[in-house]
Amino acid sequence: MKTILAEIISIGDELLIGQVVNTNATWMAQVLNHAGITVVQVTTVRDDRQAIWNAVSAAMSRVDVVLTTGGLGPTKDDITKMVLCDYFHTRLVEDLRVRAHVHALYKNRPEVLNTLTATQWMVPSHATILTNRVGSAPIMVFGKDKRLLVSMPGVPHEMQIAMNEQVLPFLHEQLQLSADIIHRTVVVYGIPESTLALKIEKWEKALPKSIHLAYLPKQGVVRLRLSSYGEATAEQIDKQIDTLLPLIRENVIAGEDIAPNEVLGKWLTNSHHTIATAESCTGGRLAALLNEQSGSSAYYMGSVVAYDNSVKQQVLGVRAETLATDGAVSEACVRQMAEGVRRLLHTDYAIATSGIAGPTGGSPDKPVGTVWIAWATPEGTFAECRHFSGDRQQITQNAAMAAIGKLLLSFNSK
Length: 414
Hints:
Blueprint: E1 4-11, H1 13-16, H2 23-34, E2 37-45, H3 49-60, E3 65-69, H4 80-87, E4 92-94, H5 96-105, E5 122-124, E6 128-130, E7 139-144, E8 147-152, H6 156-175, E9 181-189, H7 193-199, H8 201-205, E10 212-218, E11 221-229, H9 234-248, E12 252-254, H10 260-271, E13 275-279, H11 285-290, E14 300-305, H12 309-314, H13 320-325, H14 331-345, E15 349-355, E16 370-377, E17 380-387, H15 392-412
Helix pairs in contact: 2-6, 3-4, 10-15
């Protein structure tokens, strides 16, 4: 079966000056891949007629499907629709169906129905118009030389609904897609990427050519992704994973592509256990990670952000002599923090952090990036000192993820 190739074109000055992060392209690439469409390029261009024209022309010459986002609003800086009309040699006409939709969308906001909004129901005469259920900008599909271009709004939630409800079903029908792209992911923690590669080197060399391995490291986690592009079956990939797992079992935290905090949440939910956090240097990042998932109230009881030593003493029960002798950034302190919050909130597990996030506050003995992590469990309390690099935000984020990762690894020994 022919491989369907796609290119994503993200349009907007805000993407190129760093004002907005291009999350659309990442999300689209994932869902297109799962649908059996291979994304070969992502292009970002500014709100400029020639830049958009050049990007569209180049993409239409090399892929089967081009998907654009952005530049479809009612203001003068949104020029995508007009550029596409010119490129595909068509003109704008009034679409009564889109007009009725826009009027219904803003029936309780009559002030929005002005002359600028009226431009939204002007659509290319030679394009297929798909419904944008939650927005006023229509989804437009153009065809040329057996290639398709789909133009969607740039607002992320509008684009995602458009893709799921309209674009993907349309592409499935038009291209007779068969989702023969297969990915399997094993998430590994607590081992450097290079060390991991050496550990599984023999296994990797024995992989059949039909299965491709990628190392995807991020914040101490390495995702091992095995992929097949129509050459191997899911069963064949799963068999390779079965031979991989015994080699790295002590470092595996998930058999699917999910973040460590989501892995921990699923484990706590399934085991009916609870957890609390006590944070100093991470300042609530642990709490944010643990309540990020829907349903976290079933297992996450709460947090104490004890930045000042008086809070460590009075709320968490850290002993005064510990702070005087060892200091707040110490094994003894972080152990007592973890045990204190576990006792205070009556949970099965607790995680605590105390460190120096910088850029000031470091010393020769405890430089910036020094973080003590402790995890209190029914089997006992454990602690580890870590040293992180980067700015304050990177240190605190990495420390929070490391704290979750260490607790997950402790489960492997059970």
